[in-house]
Amino acid sequence: MRLLHLADLHLDSPMRGLSAHEGAPDTAASCTREAFEAAVRFALEEDVSLVVIVGDVYDGDWQDVSTGMFFARQLALLRGGGIPAVVISGNHDAASRITRQITLPKGTSVLSTKMPETVVFAELGVAVHGQGFATREVTENLAANYPPALPDLINIGLLHTSLAGHPDHDSYAACSAQDLERLGYDYWALGHIHIRGRACDGLPAFYSGCIQGRSVRECGPHGGLLVELERGDEPTVEPVNFDVLRWSTAEVDCTSVETLDDLLKRARSTLGGLLSDADGLPVACRLRLAGETPLHNWLLAESEQLRAELVLAANDVAADMLWLGGVSTATRPLRKGGAARDPELVRALEAVVEDERTGKELDGALDELLARIPSELLDAAGPLAWLADRDAARERVIDLGRARLSTDLDVASAGRGV
Amino acid sequence: MRFRELRLIAFGPFTDQVIDFGGPAACDLHVVLGLNEAGKSSALRAIHALLFGFPHITTDAHVHPYERLRVGALLDTGDGHSVELARVKARQRDLRDVKDEPLDDSVLRHALGGIDEALYDRLFLVDHQELREGGAGLVVGGGDFGVSLFGATLGAGNLATVRRELGRRGEALFKADGKARKPLLNAGLLAYRSDMEQARALSVKPREYETASALVDRLTGERREKTSEVAGLEREERAVERLASVTGALARRETVIADLEPLDGVPVLAQDATTRREVSLEQRERSTGQLTTANTTLGRLQSEIAAVVVPETLLERAAEIQALAGHVNTHEKALGDSANRSRELEAQKDVSVELRKQLGSAAPEHPAPVDRALRTSIAKLGDEQVKLLERQRVAEEQLQECNEANDQEAQALKDAPAAPEAPDTIATWTAAAAERVPLALAAAKQKGVAERAIAKLVATAGKLSPSFDPRAPLPAEPPPAAAIAAHQAKVEELGTQFAEQRTERDRLARQRDQLQLQLATLGTEEVENARKQMVTSRGERDQSYADLGSRLDESDIEGAHRAHAELGVALTQADELADLLLTQADQVAQRGHLTAEVAEIIKQHGEREEELTNSAAQREQLLVAWRELWQPCTVTPLDDADAMHKWRARYDELTAQHTDLALELAEHQGSLDGAKQTADGLRAALEAAGSPADADLPLEQLVEHARLIVERTQSAIDDQQKLVADADEAAKAFATAKRGVQQAEKNLKDWNKRWADALQPLALPVDMPPEAARDTIGLLDDLAANEKVAADLGHRIERITANYDAYAGTVTALAGTLAPDLQETDALQLIRTLNQRVEAAKTAATKRSQLEDREGVAVERIAELEEELRDAEGVLSRLCKQAQCTAAEELPAIEERAALRDELRHELEELDKRIVEQGEQPVVELQQLLGERTGDDLAAELATHHDTLQSARSELEALVEQHTKAIAALGELDHGTEAALERERAEHEAALIGELAERYLAERAAAVLLTRAIAFHREHSATPILERAEQLLPQLTADSLTRLFVDDEDGDHPILMARRDNGGELGVNGMSDGALDQLYLALRLAALEHHLDALPPLPVLLDDILVNFDEQRVATTVPALAEIAQRTQVVVLTHHQHVATIAQDTLGDRVRVHRLEAVSVA
Fold this sequence. Notes:
The complex is a heterodimer. Chain A has 2 domains: 240 residues, Purple Acid Phosphatase, chain A, domain 2; 168 residues, no CATH class. Helix content of chain A is 33%, strand content 21%. Chain A has 11 helices and 15 strands. In chain A, helix 2 links the parallel strand 2 and strand 3. By secondary structure, chain B is of the alpha/beta class. Chain B is built from 29 helices and 13 strands. Classes of the chains: A alpha/beta, B alpha/beta.
């Protein structure tokens, strides 16, 4: 039998970090929908036997029922093609009112969130076991209560889990490889981790990853897994890409770059490489400028112009196919004489950084700003998450201020005597 | 670290110039005098290049090309050692030692104490620009003690501007004021909130969806129920309709059953009984007739058979006779052929006799064909002899020709002149010169282009500004872009301020005018009139009262009534006037307010006017400072700073172009010089070879001339060599021809021997020529062939005669048995006759056989007809039995009754079938359902049902419409991705907010850190610097300012103040530009000395800092510099001779003066 394994659709979730500029795609919001439509189309064209969706169909904090109506329409298409679907909720679905509001079409099995549930597809010779999330934070080991494999059937387990933990994802429904292995299932379809791949060595457990990358943290191709299953055989797993917009990051080596033209030339080359690696999809990317360059001060002082120039460079490479999501400047100044700095300035800054009054003033500035910033922008996924931890934020602000001051002093005295 | 020597080896206008600073001295003070400014500035850039490397693009390669630029130095590294090094222009390994080997950068880095270029410039380099910025910075900072001291300490005189810029940039990004909209971050936050609100507005709320979904569910249920009800009614209606539709059929069914009753006893016949009956009767009649005709035909055939006779004996030998007859023609032809062959045999014998006669004794007794190999061998030998003889003839002719040619070539060689010497030297120079020609031509052309470009460039530079003299060379270095930008910012700020003030002033004027107009409408005349009317009215009222009293006293009731009425009128008028007066009184009060307001506005208007005047004055001051800024480069700037900003960019561009063109020009000149050297070498070579060229010939013609000489010489040498080669060739040809003749003779001798061997088997004479031998062999072959043919003919004639004799014997024997009448006939004729008799016997036998076949057919036909007759009788007999009758004639009547019965039964079946089909129930049930009802009864029932059904259908339609609308409404709730798109836009704004917030916090933190750092410095480090500056200021101002002190030292805003020589106090705002320069320099030098406590002693470079100092101040300042020079090397760069003179006069040998010898640009 042929199984299409999907997870983490996050329908209508926005593309994060794609700065507002003239070239940015207005239709980025529909990317997740288009990706899911592509998956459904693929299932119908390839005549798969079963589709499983392992959690996080919606974003939990988003309450637009249109999203659910879209999901239901797509599942109805699968039903029209005679393809059953099995869905479990994940941490995001559990908190979503859409999940409770929308009635999914017949032919779609939504597994219980109270206890593990098994759906048997006799004509396929398949049993699907799974349990969805009842609340956003499920910390118990759900797999511990899953039933053992049913004899004479292909057994598939659905689980939204971080397994033993993942650095980029919250820990939910944690369990060990042994917990999965003892049940003797033929295939474990896992969700929650947005990176596609095998979850445990020697165990038929796979993450399909998210269906569409939504930020620069989710670079590279995304989609689902096409799984060929025969009783008693190792599953054959083939990744299938459904994404419609590709995220990428790249570093532009600015070492010894002395003019803006040279820098843009290197940037164009880097951007061209990103585009050629993207399977013909449009690319949203973030560039990091690095290396020791005499342009360092200019890059810091003229970040607006730099961004504008890089946006134009991206347009040169491929207008409407390449969007610059951000630029970070991590270059270093060219220090021909060495690294020693002004002793008086260093002494004064070190003293004032430790001064309580400095901290209070900076706290005041942070408070003024935070009072106007909506709380969601300070969330973990928000662009100002780094401000949430006051001590760490103050440290970073001090670093930013020192760099700014140093640059301004150098710029102000540049060209003297020559 | 200090300079012992600075070596300007190849840099800017310098070539191999050395500034010798000498060894360490108690006072290490040096004045470097460059009489033109370019030389001084170049020296300063050379020091920079030496210490920190060349910039990627340099303007100092106008004399020396990039690859030759080099600055060297002998340095005392400060730890008791010296190092010689040099810096070249290269991307890598640009620091070199004395052997020009790459030197590790760490050597210089160590000597510099880890100070980088930017920090060195800030701390150890003071130039005129910094003094001006520092002075201006003191004013911008309002003389703030902390800012001034810290700025001087950091070498950033414009620290106040930096701080102000930080604040300005921060405010441009974010303002905490809730009403702020303009700053970028505030605008971004507003946009974000707006996008999110829009997203929420476009979202389908779960409650909305729930309501719409519940309505759809309810209507779905109701629709389902109503649909079911309508379906039930429709079923009932259809049942009655079905019953009505079968009522007629049920009646007919009863009639058919009654008609069937009398036919009950009629026998059942086969379906085809009638057909079979008719066919059998017809067959019986036809068979009887045909049987009679067949018996007649059979009798006739039997008679004909008896009449035919056949000879059987002859037919028995027919095959043998026909075989013999088949050979008759063969034997006739063979007998004829035998006669012909006899004649040919005779002719062959005659030919043999003739051939033997030709061969004579060579004819053999039993001739045989000559062996094929022998014949071929003799033929080849004949051909070979022809070729050998031809070769011998040709070899002898060649020998004769070669002999003659050999004699001619030897004579020509003897007559030729001697060969000249080889032209190698000229050729080498010519090749070198030829290579140079295109380069030299291109260089000459490009040089012209470059010269024109330079001329155009200079002309273009002249158009940069209306005040720019196009005849002058490029101006000196203009102010830096940062200074222009700073001025531009000030102008813009002032412009904005001016515009705001003017707008406010105009607004106030408009407001004033409006109020004055309003005041004008509130005149006092109306009030006065109202007051007068009021007095009159009061008089009238009093009069009316008095009149009323009089009338009452007089008891004049009628008069009292009139007076009362008049009093009422008077009172009413008084009330109206009182109201009018009150209104007028309000206006008067309002006028008072307006008057006060107008006065306030007029006052504010005056203040704005004053501010505008101040702003205009500031703008004038700014323009003065702007022009002063440009003064050093002798350019009168346009007021438009943006235009001058572009002018400066254009200036940089043109300067760079100028440098490139100069470099290009130098390269072309180099190419031309190289070409000239090559031409000189070529001329010398030509002269040495005795073919001197005209001295005026250009290089390309000189090359052509040299090529001609080389070609001529080489041609003579080639001719001589060709003669020698031809003579050798002729001698070789003669020897070869001689060997050819000898070889031909030897070959002929060999052939004679092989010829004799070949003729020997035929016994032919050895001297027989090849042609005769070939003819004799031909005759021998012909004879052998002829005699073989004659023998074959004889054998064939004998075989024919024997065959015929055997055949005639066989034929004669046969005739003796079968035809004795033909015994005497020729054998061939006899067998022909017998054969004809056999053919006649065969024809008779065939005829009898055919008659017998026809007889058999007739017998079979009679038997068939008899069988058919019996079958017909049998069928009729069986039909009568089924119809229960005795004769076939009774059958038709019985068949008719049986058919009627079958038809009625069939109708009954059809009726039942139709009734069940239409009634959709069994007949019995339908009969029961119908009962006693008639068709009319059923019609009435149907009408009632129809009305009920229509009503239910209408209700269903209404429900369907409601349901459809509800579904549509639910579908319309789906806004697709609109909400998600708004959310996406909000995310875009969020990303921007993230970036802007980071930038804002960086600006804000930088401002906080700077402010705090200034305060820290003021508290911990400023005192010693201030004390030293206090000592320096009187020196630098020649005691015009006697003291430097801090006002409000213990307060929050300590301000730097100076005391004049007349005892007055002076703040920075009151100081002249010169005094500000000197104050900043005092602070800067004090800070520099302070740094020397913590940093390694490095050379201090003072570039034109005394340019605005008068001679007295120069004289008092140089001792202060000498004090610093006791701690580290101090180099004063100047292009003013008087500075050097005064320094020497003041300090004597404590100062050393060095003169730069700049080479002017060619």
